[in-house]
Amino acid sequence: MSGPTRVDLYVDPVCPFAWLAFRWLLEVERARELDLHVRLMSLAVLNEGREGHTPEAEKGLDSAWRPVRVGTALVERRGEPVLRDYVWEFGHRFHDRGERGRDDVLRAVLAELDADDLYPAADSGGLDEIVRRVHHEGMDPVGDEVGTPVLHVEGTAFFGPVLGACPRGQEALDMFDGAVLLARNPLFYELKRSRSGGPNFD
């Protein structure tokens, strides 16, 4: 009898498409045995030096560095499983409920997790080496021309899926099976179409 399917989801908490992928996998997890690990990637690292992106140092409290630094500090203190709670609390507030700005959301999440004392990590570079290492563990297997989310399923890594909304029930399961089946084929590279609207968090 086979065991649970190992799934590593690499997310940046501020990315709406990473949030939808997380919610989708939670839906899949209701019906399938998943060994789901939530891990951090960093849009700040990903976009370093990319044309058209404002340097994170100029974004102040909205810098994408801040949530991943705090998430990394939480992992260093409590272990990787805490990231599920952290990403859930941040995403539910920031994406589902539309709370703004990022700093207020970050403070509220830390209060909810009883970790207010980790707030200074947001503006400290002390854990940036760990952020970069984990980011590259997730992103390097899929190359440089991708973003977030990234999934690793039983050793197969791929970018996406980029979802406009969270599929439910059998649709969520079908999408999971199809995505993994395509990604496991070494001849498959990419499916893509233009987005027709923004993300829907209902």
Question: How would you describe the overall organization of this protein?
Answer:
This protein has 202 residues and is an alpha+beta fold. The chain has one domain: Glutaredoxin. The chain contains 7 helices and 4 strands, in the order E-H-E-H-H-H-H-H-E-E-H. A 4-stranded mixed β-sheet has the order 2-1-3-4. Strand 1, helix 1 and strand 2 form a beta-alpha-beta unit. Helix 1 packs across helix 7, helix 3 packs antiparallel against helix 4 and helix 4 packs across helix 5. The model has no long low-confidence stretch (mean pLDDT 92).
How would the blueprint of this fold be written?
Layout: E1 5-11, H1 16-29, E2 34-40, H2 43-46, H3 65-78, H4 82-96, H5 102-112, H6 128-139, E3 150-153, E4 156-159, H7 169-184
Parallel strand pairs: 1-2
Antiparallel strand pairs: 1-3, 3-4
Helix pairs in contact: 1-7, 3-4, 4-5
